[in-house]
Amino acid sequence: MNGRTAPKLSNAADGERGFTLIELMITVAIIAVLAILAGVGYARWIRTSKTGEATAMLSAIKGAEESFKAETYKYLDVSGTPGGSSMPAYYPTSAPNDQRTTWNPAACAGTTVCTNFQKLNISADNTSAGVYYRYGVTAGAATGATFTFDGRGYPAANDPWFVAKAIGDLNNDGVQSQYWTSSMDSTVWSLKPDE
Predict the structure, then answer these.
(1) Cβ 166 vs Cβ 135: under 8 Å
(2) pLDDT tens, residue by residue, 7-57
(3) Which helix (H) or strand (E) holds 191?
(4) Is 83 in a helix, a strand, or coil?
(5) In contact, 132 and 50? CB cutoff 8 Å
(6) Which among 73, 70, 127 has a CA at the least distance from the CA of 104?
(7) What is the DSSP string of 99-149?
(8) DSSP code at position 82
(9) Where are the alpha helices (DSSP H) in the chain?
């Protein structure tokens, strides 16, 4: 031979190594699981952020009812049928889903719920975008008796009282989340808040 050596080809024995098919499959599986978890977490975070609307509107309703009582010595029964066992009417009237619905009580003036929400001067934070939840308020006179409303027991009504409620279905699965507050406590209660 002419004294030249042939170039040396590298191989796995020289320390260079690629990924095996199993390693690639495991990596792809891990990335897929992380993507699914991120998607579920993000969807829950979005739904949770929308629940802020319900608590803000119920707080506004509570403040408006207290102002109304300061002037009239009673709370305004917005939804009709005071003292019933469940909320008789909500506004907006359509069934809750994952889409916003216009909040404009002036547009349906003449109906009890709309006229009464106008009296309370309740408006949504973003009126043009609408609301995700439906709202109702029932009120009654002092009776001195305990009462149950929507399956929840309340103490003796020794003073005029009201219960305000919001219902929603943010993931559009037919199961409603519920929020409510009353004149008898300062808490906003919830049932199935992630629905």
Answers:
(1) yes
(2) 555 555 556 677 888 988 999 999 999 999 988 888 777 767 778 888 889
(3) strand 189-191
(4) coil
(5) yes
(6) 127
(7) S-B---GGGGBTBHHHHHHHHHT---TTTTT-BSSEEEEEEE---SS-EEE
(8) T
(9) 21-72, 112-120
**Gap between the Cα atoms of 140 and 112, Å rounded:** 16
Tokens representing 143? 């009776």
Nearest 5 degrees, angle CA 102-CA 96-CA 109?
Answer: 40
Integer Cα distance of 56 and 141 in angstroms: 26
Tell which residue, 97, 106, 81, 95, has the closest CA to residue 163.
Answer: 81
Q: Where are the domains of the chain?
A: 52-191
The b-or-e profile of 106-136 (16+ CB within 10 A means b, else e) is eebeeeebbebbbebebebeeeeeebbbbbb
Which residue type occupies 44?
R
Q: Where are the beta strands (DSSP E) in 144-188?
A: 147-149, 152-154, 161-168, 177-182
pLDDT in tens, 93-124: 878 888 888 888 888 877 888 888 888 988 87
